[in-house]
């Protein structure tokens, strides 16, 4: 018969065996890891370090495609965003940030579609130098850092070059269109100018039709004066179809006669440009009022000085002896 001590031994022996087996497996895994790490370190030590010229070429090869990508990305985003902001943004009341987000969608799509094409063009043109690195050298941390730095410098430079597009577009056009769309009083294409040299033999007739906006009449008059035209007659009346639209008629002369047929288009263009910037006339009026106030103050001071000088120039000797 089995005693209690024999039963205890039988239960503890398998437990010890399992613990021993677990320790042996752990030691083997640790030894395997050490061998792998030592093998990787040995392989890295055996790989020849790239030269400074190779690293330079690798930097340029990594940077050049990203310059083109950054330039194309910013160009497409700015142009597409501005087009969306001036069309869909005005029609549906989209914010500028929303239009920029849609422009970024177009930009990223263009990058996916044409990114490989751009890189292939650089290779064909010989603008992407080869560094001559082996596969093991490309795996080195130093080489990876150089490639990352080149890509970063390239994309930042390309994006900065893409900002040149801001000089080619009217950045305030969308704001003007949206402001007019909100109050319904301004339409960029709502103004039209008709120049006629057949109505009168001695003068030119300019007819301007468009929405009724404060300051536009003064702005057009100032534009005619800057073009060398003298306003002989001027008529303004509301449109019979829409009370918010007016029709202004100017009868002008240049040097006492009609405006030359060659200069008609230029004068009409100036008048049309004046309808898009009525605030300029308001600022001119404010400046004129300020100058008139300064002139009045100078006249007052001049009068005070003249009276003081007149009193100083007069000397009297009364009988009491006090001069």
Describe this entry's structure for a reader.
With 323 residues, this protein is an alpha+beta fold. It is 64% helix and 10% strand. The protein has a four-stranded antiparallel beta sheet, covered by helices on one side. The longest helix has 43 residues, at 4-46. The model is unreliable at 4-11, 38-43 and 185-189 (pLDDT under 50).
Put the structure in a nutshell.
With 323 residues, this protein is an alpha+beta fold. It has helices spanning 4-46, 52-86, 88-92, 96-124, 135-138, 141-162, 173-183, 216-226, 264-275, 278-313, and strands at 192-196, 204-211, 230-238, 245-253.
Strand order of the largest sheet: 1-2-4-3
Task: Provide the gyration radius in Å.
Answer: 42 Å
Structural class: alpha+beta
Shape assignment: elongated
Report the average pLDDT across residues.
79
Ends: how far apart? 156 Å
Report the order of strands and helices.
Answer: HHHHHHHEEHEEHH
Outline the low-pLDDT stretches.
4-11, 38-43, 185-189
- Total strands: the figure is 4
Count of individual helical segments: 10
Describe the sheet with the most strands. Answer: 4 strands, antiparallel
Strand content: 5-15%
Helix content range: 55-70%
């Amino acid at each position: 018969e089995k005693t209690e001590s024999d039963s205890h031994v039988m239960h503890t022996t398998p437990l010890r065996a399992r613990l021993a087996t677990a320790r042996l497996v752990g030691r083997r895994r640790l030894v395997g890891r050490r061998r792998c790490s030592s093998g990787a370190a040995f392989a890295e030590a055996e790989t020849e370090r790239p030269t400074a010229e190779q690293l330079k070429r690798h930097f340029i090869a990594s940077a050049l495609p990203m310059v083109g990508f950054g330039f194309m990305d910013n160009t497409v985003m700015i142009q597409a965003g501005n087009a969306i902001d001036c069309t869909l943004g005005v029609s549906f009341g989209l914010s500028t940030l929303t239009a920029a987000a849609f422009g970024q969608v177009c930009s990223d799509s263009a990058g996916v579609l044409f990114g490989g094409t751009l890189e292939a063009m650089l290779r064909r043109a010989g603008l992407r130098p080869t560094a001559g690195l082996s596969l093991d050298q490309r795996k080195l941390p130093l080489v990876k850092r150089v490639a990352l730095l080149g890509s970063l410098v390239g994309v930042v430079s390309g994006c900065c070059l893409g900002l040149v597009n801001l000089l080619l577009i009217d950045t305030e056009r969308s704001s003007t269109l949206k402001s007019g769309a909100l109050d319904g009083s301004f339409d960029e294409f709502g103004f039209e100018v008709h120049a006629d040299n057949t109505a009168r033999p001695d003068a030119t007739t300019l007819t301007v039709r468009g929405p009724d906006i404060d300051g536009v009449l003064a702005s057009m008059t100032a534009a005619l004066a800057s073009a060398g035209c003298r306003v002989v007659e001027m008529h303004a009346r509301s449109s019979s179809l829409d009370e918010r639209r007016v029709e202004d008629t100017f009868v002008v002369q240049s040097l006492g006669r009609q405006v030359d047929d060659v200069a008609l288009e230029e004068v009409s263009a100036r008048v049309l440009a004046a309808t898009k910037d009525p605030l300029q006339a308001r600022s001119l009026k404010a400046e004129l009022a300020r100058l008139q106030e300064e002139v009045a103050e100078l006249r007052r001071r001049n009068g005070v000085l003249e009276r003081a000088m007149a009193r100083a120039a007069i000397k009297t000797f009364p009988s009491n002896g006090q001069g």
